[in-house]
Amino acid sequence: MAQVESSWPRSRPLIATLAAALHSIERGNSVLVVEHHLEVVRNADWIIDLGPEAAGGGGRIVAAGPPEEIASCPRSITGRYLAPLLAEGEEPLDGIARGSERL
Questions:
Q1: What is the pLDDT of residues 68-93, one digit of tens each?
Q2: How many domains does the chain contain in total?
Q3: Domain extent at residue 71
């Protein structure tokens, strides 16, 4: 299972559970996760960013693609928060499969 660090202690079990579920991708399965935690989003293979706002101001696809594409999309609020995290150069969560490569 992936090593998980978070500033919000209650999120650790959730992220660890998601990391375990994502390992099923290696077995050819698809996993759909609805999540706002940026570490989970950062490790996603593909993101569908809905918005541009919440409730009545949302519900439309703002951007879709790997995290790097979302981060570079000027319409994506998620991308604005994701870009600095990707720019930090930190390694993603250890042991999570992303696409065909192992992170």
A1: 999 999 999 999 999 999 988 766 55
A2: 1
A3: 11-102
